[in-house]
Structures are given as C-alpha cells and as structure tokens.
Design brief:
single chain; about 220 residues; alpha/beta; UDP N-Acetylglucosamine Acyltransferase, domain 1; 8-stranded mixed sheet; 3 helices; 23 strands; globular
C-alpha cells in the first residue's frame, strides 16, 4: 500500500489544532505501520492565519496550490460556516474526492449515514438511522439522536444535545451547549446561540437564542 495523501483546504490555527487531533486519532493504527498520510495544508485565500500551527508529531507541508498530479483526498479545515462554503466553492473540487474522518473516541451507529467531507470529533455520539449530509462538522461531546437529519455545511459546536427526529437544514451554526428537543425542525442558514433550549420549530434565515430559544432577528449572512 502506498502513502496516503490528504489535502486540507483553508487554514485557521485553532481549527487545525482540533483537526489534527482527529486526524492523529483516526490514523493511529496506520501510524504504527508507517501508513500515516502525507498532509498538505493549502491556503491561498484571503482568510488570515492568526498564528502558525506547529505540531511536531504530524508531518505536513504548507502550500499555496494543490500539488501537481495530486491523487489523495480532501478536507476543508473546520471553520465558520461562511468560510467553509467559500473554501469549497473557490476550489470547486467534486464532493466525491472528499473524505470523512472520525475521532477514535466518537461513537457512530452502524445504521447512521454519514456524507463526505465531514469531521466527527471526540466524544460525539450519533444514534441509529440518523443522516449527516456532506461537509458537516460535529464538535466535541455532541449527541445526535435517532432519525435526525443534519443538512450540508452545518456546524454543530461542542456539547450540543440534539434529540431524535430533529431536522436541521443546510448552512446552520448550532452554538455551544445548545439543546434541541425531539421532533423539532430548524430551517436553513440559521444561527442558534450558545446554551439555547430549542422547544419550537425555527424558520429559515434567522438568528435565534435563549432559554427558551426565540427568534431575535434575520440572519443577514445569506449563503
């Protein structure tokens, strides 16, 4: 077996810290057999890097364009939803060429369906018959209940509790520690604030937060 190759598109120092933790965990078995992937970090966008990322345990190369004849898989660096979509659109790489990675300390039901380009972090639990669409990031310690569906490009931040039969649309940002009770529908392009308790359906294109969660205003960032 040849060396695997992985290209990470876009750069954010904090997000790379999280992503490399997932990558190291995901490839721990391969690492002992020298099959850890060759990693390229690609940043040629106008998204600033706040500080350089240094990890002496993971070898990577910073580049400004995709290496010629690159035959590996891709990931978008976990970042804000608006940046994630921007990065995906700028590079215009077919979704079939993206990989999904799971932290070794996540728990995903065999009956769940997970799309491409997803990152599933440590402590995440995804119950049976759930559907996680392409380019979804689920951060540490979040729980996804049975028969729940999460739309493309949505980000679930740490410690969220999403019950069963929930529908979350595309391009949503669910804040840290939010709780969404069973059967709730949340539209697309929404921001749900940290710590919110969502007891009622939420329409498209709004910012909502609170306990109980209430619509505060329209979401001006239409994606």
């Amino acid at each position: 077996m040849g060396t695997q190759k992985l290209a990470i598109l876009g750069v954010s120092a904090g997000a790379l810290t999280m992503l490399f933790d997932v990558i190291e965990s995901s490839f721990e078995f391969q690492k002992q057999y020298d099959l850890f992937p060759e990693i390229f970090i690609l940043n040629n966008l106008d998204i600033e890097i706040e500080k350089p990322y240094i990890n002496n345990d993971v070898l990577y190369t910073m580049v400004t364009e995709i290496p010629e004849n690159f035959d590996g898989k891709y990931l978008v660096c976990p970042t804000r939803v608006v940046n994630k979509i921007k990065i995906f659109n700028v590079f215009n790489i077919p979704i079939e060429q993206f990989t999904t990675i799971f932290h070794a300390m996540s728990s995903v039901s065999k009956t769940a369906t997970i799309g491409r380009g997803c990152v599933i972090n440590a402590g995440v639990v995804i119950a049976g018959q759930s559907v996680i669409e392409d380019m979804v990031f689920i951060n540490r310690g979040s729980t996804i209940g049975h028969h729940t569906r999460i739309g493309r490009f949505t980000t679930i931040n740490p410690a969220c509790n999403i019950a069963g039969d929930v529908l979350i649309g595309e391009k949503c940002e669910i804040g840290i520690g939010a709780t969404i009770i069973d059967g709730i529908n949340i539209g697309s392009n929404n921001i749900i604030g940290a710590g919110s308790l969502v007891l009622n359906d939420i329409p498209d294109n709004v910012v909502a937060y609170g306990n109980p969660c209430k619509i505060i205003r329209e979401n001006g960032t239409l994606l």
